[in-house]
Specification:
The complex is a heterodimer.
Chain A: E1 3-7, H1 11-14, E2 26-30, E3 33-37, H2 39-43, H3 52-58, E4 63-66, H4 69-83, E5 90-93, E6 97-101, H5 106-109, H6 112-126, E7 131-135, H7 138-146, H8 159-164, H9 175-183, H10 189-194, H11 197-204, H12 206-216, E8 232-242, H13 249-266, E9 268-279, E10 285-295, H14 298-311, E11 318-325, E12 328-330, H15 346-361, E13 366-371, E14 381-384, E15 401-408, E16 411-412, E17 415-416, E18 423-433, E19 441-449, E20 455-461, E21 468-474
Parallel strand pairs in A: 2-4
Antiparallel strand pairs in A: 1-6, 1-7, 2-3, 5-6, 8-11, 9-10, 9-11, 9-12, 13-14, 15-21, 16-17, 18-19, 19-20, 20-21
Helix pairs in contact in A: 4-13, 7-12, 11-12, 13-14, 14-15
Chain B: H1 2-10, E1 26-27, H2 32-37, E2 43-44, E3 48-53, H3 60-72, E4 77-81, E5 86-87, H4 89-94, E6 102-105, H5 110-123, E7 126-131, H6 138-151, E8 154-159, E9 172-177, E10 184-191, E11 197-202
Parallel strand pairs in B: 3-8, 3-9, 4-6, 4-7, 7-8
Antiparallel strand pairs in B: 1-2, 9-10, 10-11
Helix pairs in contact in B: 5-6
The chains are: A alpha+beta, B alpha/beta.
Chain lengths: 475, 264
């Protein structure tokens, strides 16, 4: 068993979409004291624990936001969903931490160092600043993460020494108990461990002893396992209003990476993404991006969303984004052949191409083609969205190009003309049908050639005027 | 001194007459004369081919349909980007193109057309991409050429005959000219790795099916002698129907059917 603990110290800021490394000073306040400040504010002298008026006196340009614990809990919940792709045992540590059991899956990822690196890189890509620690017991890992020890302890026997070096502040005790410990001269966990256990419990409470024993592995430490959601519903506020589609790219990337983590953990794919753009004074704009096949690659999904956003004019500046995936479909793993075969690999590439073209040009701009069983030439074909294999043998030679509307031809000296008098070559082929739906036709079709050598498909109306029309070109 | 000559010969700007790139990757066109004139024995795969013609309907698509029909059955796709008219599905099916592998793309703006072409050629899932660009500059054509190479795609551009004067990085440029009484004239303006060739005549523009002429007068149709420049194999002839007034005459031999008088 090897547990990786992740401590997210800046979660109050990040849950509201604020970047801890931004240049503007921002602080989060709860009640009458500051809970967390970003680096710019800390540089100006503002510290957690001060009152808002003190802070504003020190730094007039400071922006204060009230703390939103439900946003933080939501962010932590989604982060636990995202971490499900790395391990089947994920346990959120309220209010600002995550415990991931990596011992079971480290072999799949190639060793615990590689797995830990992937997790930390993923957290950076999602925009969370983090401190990590790894140990055989979850409590010990959490203590190491709180102290930012950056150690990986794989041997339970080394735990007492490693934990001994940590200060007692990592235990997160109430201030009175903390003061009592330091008053006795116990500054590090090693000092606590040196005392007899029963006396420690009697003096400071059984809870403290239980925690220490759990950290050392002497008592069992069960953790509730997080079960991932079956839908994805994530609301992200933007730090500043976005006026065009480019500025939404960063936030969209974060949302899609979280979605990709959940989909990978569930071995599923998304076929329909619903993206809501929230505005300040207007109802949200809803966009639906549909895919031809379920997919979970975040880069591909980002390309599709960006193309779709480019096509949509923004009615008002966007203040927040919400990404919803209601159905997570099973995505079977791809089976690759043993020998490289160029032809067989193109299936997925083709669907991605069709999706990309559809996202930028419009869903109805990309179609397939099929024949239909009808003698009337204008109805003998149709566009399809799925590839169709219907075989309807034509009865005569048909032109490659069909005009959408038959073009009337002027008649000179009794011959129809199209850039010159036409010479009839084959025909007539009589098509007389379609009485049942009111679009009946009665025409005689001929092959004709004009003086430049173009071969045309023309017809003559049998009813009414007997006029000549051009219907197709033999290319 | 020999060093200077060697260096000069190694430069890529110099082309030596004995240099024939052996491109193993060629698509047989289905026309023996054309294949004989092309290096590699067929259409260049992974490169652009330009077909220039002043008038529509002279057989420009008949020239490429045999190769397209074969490509549509290999498992990859054929994309038609911004076709000027409706590509008629029964005609394509009759020529052997697998319709389930056809992709029609209708961009709205001109800039979208070039982007769609590049995406389709680059993706590697399209074996052939057909386009009818109205304007294509040298730089844009170079990008398309690069995309076709990356995606191993046969890029076909149908352009107006006036584009013959412009420079183009296409590997093969063909000019087509329709004639009224003879076969279509095919000129190879630029052949990469081979010699340009003028004056090929290919039977591209003749009715394929047996026509059903109604005789204007009750006399039976006279049989015209077979022309010597015919390159297609004669169609399977069926037994001659007994001549008679009102019976259908099937022209078994003549390449050019008898012209008809238009009905009053």
């Amino acid at each position: 068993m090897l547990w990786l603990a992740v401590h997210l110290p800046d979660l109050p800021l990040e849950a509201l979409g604020q970047d801890p490394a931004a240049t503007e000073p921002v602080a989060i306040s709860e009640g009458q004291s500051l809970v967390r400040v970003n680096r710019a504010a800390a540089g100006g002298g503002v510290q957690p624990g001060q009152t808002p008026s003190e802070a504003r006196a020190l730094l007039p340009a400071l922006r204060l936001h009230p703390r939103q614990t439900d946003a933080e809990a939501n962010a932590l919940h989604h982060l636990a969903d995202w971490a499900y792709q790395f391990s089947s045992q994920v346990s959120p540590q309220a209010p600002d931490g995550l415990l991931v059991e990596t011992g079971g899956s480290q072999r799949l990822f190639g060793g615990h160092a590689v797995l830990h690196q992937r997790i930390t890189q993923g957290l950076e890509a999602l925009g969370y600043s983090h401190r990590t620690g790894a140990a055989p017991t979850p409590t010990a890992a959490w203590l190491l993460a709180r102290a930012d020890a950056r150690e990986v302890i794989t041997d339970p026997a080394a735990l007492p020494d490693a934990l001994g070096a940590l200060p007692v502040a990592v235990l997160d005790l109430p201030p009175a108990q903390h003061q009592a410990l330091t008053g006795l001269g116990l500054w590090s966990l090693g000092d606590c461990l040196a005392l007899p256990r029963r006396d420690l419990a009697r003096r400071f409470g059984a809870q403290l002893l239980l925690r220490i024993e759990r950290a050392l592995g002497e008592r069992p430490d069960p953790r509730a396992s997080h079960s991932p959601a079956t839908r994805f519903h994530r609301y992200l506020e933007l730090p500043d209003e976005a006026h065009d589609a480019q500025s939404l790219g960063f936030a969209l990337q974060r949302l899609l990476r979280e979605l990709a983590g959940l989909l990978r953990g569930l071995e599923g794919g998304a076929q329909e993404l619903a993206l809501d753009l929230h505005h300040r004074h207007q109802p949200p704009t809803e966009l639906v991006i549909g895919l031809l096949r379920p997919a979970r690659d975040p880069e591909h999904l980002l390309t599709l969303c960006q193309h779709r956003l480019d096509r949509t004019p923004l009615a008002a500046p966007v203040t927040a984004l919400c990404l919803r995936v209601e159905n997570i479909l099973q995505l079977p793993p791809e089976s690759v052949a043993l020998l490289p075969d160029h032809e067989a690999d193109t299936g997925a590439a083709h669907w991605q191409l069709a999706e990309r073209l559809g996202a930028r040009l419009g869903e109805d701009a990309v179609t397939g083609l099929s024949t239909a069983a009808d003698h009337r030439p204008e109805r003998a074909w149709r566009t399809t969205s799925e590839p169709a294999t219907t075989a309807h043998p034509p009865f005569g030679e048909r032109p490659f190009w069909l005009l959408a509307n038959p073009e009337p031809l002027p008649v000179e000296h009794g011959r129809p003309c199209w850039h010159g008098p036409l010479r009839l070559e084959c025909g007539p082929e009589r098509i007389e049908t379609g009485w049942w739906d009111g679009h009946d036709v009665s025409r005689d079709y001929y092959h004709a050639r004009n003086p430049q050598g173009s071969r045309l498909w023309i017809f003559r109306e049998r009813r009414g005027t007997g006029a000549w029309y051009l219907h197709g070109v033999f290319a | 001194m020999s060093n200077a000559v060697d260096e000069l010969l190694r430069e890529s700007r110099i082309w030596r007459a004995g240099d024939n790139h052996d491109r193993g990757d060629c698509l047989p066109s289905g026309f023996a004369e054309l294949d004989a004139a092309l290096p590699g024995g067929g259409w260049p795969n992974g490169a652009l081919t330009e077909l220039l013609h002043a008038n529509p309907g002279i057989g420009e698509l008949q020239l490429v349909l045999p190769a397209l029909a074969r490509l549509s059955r290999t498992g990859r796709w054929i994309a038609l980007v911004a076709p000027p008219q409706i590509p008629y599905a029964p005609a394509l099916a009759a020529h052997g193109v697998d319709l389930s592998r056809l992709l029609l793309v209708h961009p709205r703006a001109g800039s979208d057309t070039l982007w769609a072409l590049e995406q389709a050629m680059h993706s590697g899932s399209c074996a052939a991409v057909l386009a009818w660009p109205r304007r294509a500059g040298d730089k844009q054509l170079r990008r398309l050429q690069l995309a076709a190479e990356t995606g191993r795609c046969w890029g076909l551009l149908f352009r107006d005959a006036t584009a013959a004067q412009e420079r183009s990085p296409a590997a093969l440029r063909i000019a087509l000219q329709g004639e009224v009484d003879t076969d279509t004239r095919v000129d190879l303006l630029k052949v990469q790795g081979g010699q340009p060739r003028q004056g090929l005549r290919l039977n591209l523009n003749n009715p394929r099916t047996r026509s059903l002429p109604v005789p204007a007068s009750p006399e039976p149709a006279t049989r015209q002698p077979e022309s010597a420049t015919r390159t297609r194999a004669p169609e399977a002839s069926s037994a001659r129907v007994r001549d008679g007034i009102g019976q259908m005459q099937l022209p078994l031999g003549p390449r050019r059917p008898r012209t008809l008088q238009p009905l009053p």
